[in-house]
Design brief:
39% of the residues lie in helices and 21% in strands. Helix 3 runs antiparallel to helix 4. It has a single domain, classed as Acetylglutamate kinase-like (Carbamate kinase, 3-Layer(aba) Sandwich). About 2% of the residues have low confidence. The protein is an alpha/beta fold. The relative contact order is 0.17. The chain is built from 9 helices and 12 strands. The two termini are 24 Å apart.
Length: 267
Amino acid sequence: MSELVFLKLGGSLITDKHTEAMLRPEVVRRIVQEIAAARQANPGLRLVLGHGSGSFGHVPAKKHGTRQGVRTHEQWLGFVEVWRYASALNQAIMGALQAVADQPAISFAPVSSVLAAGGRVHSWNLQPIRAALAAGILPVVYGDVIFDSELGGTILSTEDLFVHLAAELQPARILLAGNDAGVYDRYPDGNVVPHITPASYAGMAALPGASAATDVTGGMASKVEAMLSIVQALPSCTVSIFSGQEAGNISKALLGETMGTLIASDQ
């Protein structure tokens, strides 16, 4: 079986997170071309693509407190507003995959297939995603609003979704492409930490806990902790957190080059 890779395009990479609903179209065009180039160079590469919501989803989500739960009529209106923005960004990414890179990609909207309990994935029928991978189609998921049996509604980030997908699909590698060159020992003027394990992470008290821009899903600390949970449960999997800003980095990472911060199990 060919290698399975998860790639997440960070919201701060594909949007201007300081300006509401502002896509970075030139960055998106370059990224989808890099994805196409990597898939052409390695036709056996199986890829699940995810992306954040950036300034599309996070701004209305913060306004309505959607991540913390949805109960009132006004909060449900906010839930729909967040869905609308997240969906709009996804459509922009899907459009670029088709028009710019001619990639056979299908979007799997999490709100329509995932049910949560207490802010975690409770159930998700993955047979359509498995079928897409078997057919050579690129499945695309993204941070989205989710109905939750305990919270009413919530938001699950792409990392939250990857935690569940990794347990079921068992990828060899997970790539998180963002603005930063990796995980810094101090932010923003520190050095990139080349390697993180569950043991070494305990001593990283200075790791930033939140993004500089609006990010309702926790910033870098929550990303690292989610990825550590994956490599602990799946020791054969490694995670790279790196910059997608530099041209060529995403293609190189997809083809196996290690860059940025590598997260791996202690085993």
